[in-house]
Amino acid sequence: MAITRDRLVALLTEYGIEDEIVLNNADISTESLIFELNRRKITVPEPFFKALADALHLTFIPKEQILSKSYLAPGLPYAVMKENLTFLLKLSREGAEFVTANPVNTTFFAKLENIFRVPITIHVTSSDAIEEAIDQGYTEIHTHRALEELRERSPDESAYGVLVPWQEYSIIIILVAFLLLFVGNYPLSLILLFGVINVIYFGLNLFKFGLSFLGFQGSRSEVTIRTEDVEKLDDATLPVFTAFVPIYGDAEMLPHLLRNLHRLDYPKDKLDIKILMEEKDDETLAAARRLGLFGEPETVMEPMSSDEYHEFLKPFEPIIVPEADIHTKPRACNYGLQRARGEFCVIFDAEDDPDPDQLKKAVLAFSHVDQDCVCLQSRLNFYNPKDNVLTRWFTLEYSYHYDFYLHGVDRIGAPIPLGGTSNYFRTKAIRNLGGWDPYNMTEDADLGIRIARKKLRTSMLNSYTYEEANTKVWNWIRQRSRWIKGFCQTYLVHMRHPRKLRADLGWRGFALFQLTLGSSIFVVLINPILWLTTALAILIPGIFPFLLVGPLTYICLFNLVVGNAFFLSTQVIAAVKERKYSLIPFALLVPIYWAMISIAAWKGAIQLLTKPFYWEKTQHGISKSDRQERQEVRVPVD
């Protein structure tokens, strides 16, 4: 099976392939020529493969015959077939038959013969036929794994069920007991309720005061990678890096995400960016086809020539996630995980704009930490903080949470609940963990707890990813209600077996789990009760004369005055430390934002009972900020 490079180039040219970047690049070997065209999304017509088969005296097999054998796909690992455009047709003691779109890939075929230890026969078909057959053959397997692998492997770790029996009974018993006490002695019932809530609140305030002070001192285990260290990296030594980008109902965001991720400073031939689109998302799929993700583009993003645009598209692989009973981001990521090629992987959202050197920083960071550190969480913030009041509040919240609060969580050794994007993983480790829980609405937070329970670690990374802050109130409430519903799911899942959780985390870790994740749910759900009680006491003097008795009066005053003043000050401090001085006046109005969070929390809690697996879609692409404004908000991290 010998053919010269010149003859192969001439044959490609004869059948309409005119990509000069590939054909005239002497560094691209004969064996790699067809692979390179395929990576650049250049459609090579079927007659070329027929002619190539004739030139090599091999049999050509039409696409229809290959697709009829797609059920044989699991005979070879998905990644091996995909990377080598090769499909196993037959295997017996007498020999093996393979069909390929790159019959000049002689090194690979020699390896196959050595592995199978039988004579092999090579046939030829089109690259399109190979990829379709592989996809069809693995679709059912990957669809099942994406949805059910965690539930089948570790059912107690899956949010498939909302409550286990003892949790249901406990909630019912507590509610019935309170109602009976309320009917029999309503002052006592309200004193108990009000007293318990305020005592818990008092304890949480003291804990969060300490946590915030620690957070302002920085992370205990943040991996700090300097720019000069990144610049010394040799691109030839870098591993393949997979990025998962789930996109659903966001067709207009495709050009944005392609541009942003192409800016990543990483060798393009080592980038494996999976654009994950739902099978029935016709609008997004149509946009992807227009942009050339599935083949020849109908439109080219300016300002690029056709050849430059094919080079631009090379790192991106479109993946259609098959239809299932639920449509969630973690299910899409699990599907992509089955097809990941990278040693490391990361999740980006459609609107994300990561620091260009972030992937290289992650590679360096993983090389600096022990193997038990399987995840890195980069910092998150927004590129449109000045759009309106809501985006300013949202930015203040993120500035405190990712730049200070999580650092405090890390310093005390509590499990770190991951953010929904820019989480970096060792791919082997995330597979061993069972991937993400497709039934959990905050699969990131859940995975952070599972990592801690397996005695593995998460560290912070000194790099930013900028997202789009919601500019519309209802859109924001939908998003936040999904997050809080997911936090409730995560808490309930890990509290199904409290003794096992304590054994996994230890007494200290167990307590910190309650004080971090548990309290974040408790506070936002309980706040309206305290606010209502306070409002009624002001509007109707004497309505609750029995509530404020003894030491409880001072506890309530502490929570109301000192607690609120402190948390207001954390927002101001976060703005000052990040030099976002224009946000300081809005920090003083943040109690309005807290009220909105509680509205979203109750919406999410109710939806947990009525529609537990419904994914509240967040609309993206609303912000009017331009590229220059987005660059101005970037925070230096070195």
How do the helices and strands line up, and which of them pair or pack?
Layout: H1 5-14, H2 20-23, H3 33-39, H4 46-55, E1 59-60, H5 63-67, H6 78-84, E2 86-91, E3 96-100, H7 106-116, E4 120-124, H8 127-153, H9 165-184, H10 186-216, H11 227-231, E5 241-247, H12 254-262, E6 271-278, H13 282-290, H14 306-313, E7 316-321, H15 329-337, E8 344-347, E9 353-354, H16 358-368, E10 373-382, H17 389-411, E11 423-426, H18 427-432, H19 443-453, E12 457-467, H20 473-494, H21 498-539, H22 551-577, H23 584-587, H24 590-610, H25 627-632
Parallel strand pairs: 1-4, 3-4, 5-6, 5-8, 6-7, 10-12
Antiparallel strand pairs: 2-3, 8-11, 9-12, 10-11
Helix pairs in contact: 8-15, 9-10, 10-17, 10-21, 10-22, 17-22, 19-20, 20-21, 20-24, 21-24
Structural description of this entry:
It is a single chain. By secondary structure, the protein is an alpha/beta fold. It is elongated and about 95 Å long. Helix 8 packs across helix 15, helix 10 crosses helix 17 and helix 20 packs across helix 24.
List keywords for this structure.
25 helices, four-stranded mixed β-sheet, single chain, about 650 residues
Strand order of the largest sheet: 7-6-5-8-11-10-12-9
Poorly predicted regions: none
For the largest beta-sheet, the strand count, sense and barrel status come to: 8 strands, mixed
- Percent helix range: 40-55%
Beta-strand portion reads 5-15%
Name the structural class.
alpha/beta
- End-to-end distance, in Å? 54 Å
The rounded Rg comes to 28 Å
Number of helical runs? 25
Number of strands: 12
Oligomer: single chain
Question: What is the 3D form?
Answer: elongated
Mean pLDDT: 91
